[in-house]
Amino acid sequence: MNEESRTYRRALRVTVIVIVALAVIAVPVGLLVAGTAGLIAAETGVLVAALAGLTTQVAMVIAHDKPAHVMAGYVGGSWLAKMLIIVIALVVLAGIDGFHRELFAAFAVTGVIATLVVDFSVIRSARIPYVDGGSK
Question: 3-state SS of the chain?
Fold first, then answer.
């Protein structure tokens, strides 16, 4: 396993930990703020954040060692799939009476920002060479 692979796997692992921690926080906050409706909204927000953060990372773990055009297909396809799922989820959730939109938005945005911070910090600290030392 090369450094690039380790970096993408590290980002995936840390993101899972962050999403689980956010879910653990969302349970009591959702219940305290709005009861069962708040719990469902908070956990749905965490789920959307997990979908947003993890799909691209999984695509990178799978496709980083493939040719650039194939990797772009994986990443672009995963992005399109998650956007479609998120838009459909938002349309469905907008029609539900009693859904606590503020808690949903708070946890979804917090989770997405947290996954972006993980991506940035892991990639920034990676030691991936720009050139291949074996090529001449």
Answer: CCHHHHHHHHHHHHHHHHHHHHHHHHHHHHHHHHHHHHHHHHHHHHHHHHHHHHHHHHHHHHHCCCCHHHHHHHHHHHHHHHHHHHHHHHHHHHCCCCCCHHHHHHHHHHHHHHHHHHHHHHHHHCCCCCCCCCCC
pLDDT by 10s per residue, the chain, length 136: 888 899 999 999 999 999 999 999 999 999 999 999 999 999 999 999 999 999 989 999 999 999 999 999 999 999 999 999 999 999 999 888 889 999 999 999 999 999 999 999 999 998 877 776 665 5
CA dihedral 37, 39, 45, 49 (to 10 degrees): -160
Rounded to 10 degrees, what is the CA torsion of 37, 43, 44, 45? Answer: 110
Phi-psi region of 2 (alpha: psi -120 to 50; beta: other; left: phi over 0): beta
Distance CA 45, CA 14 (A): 19
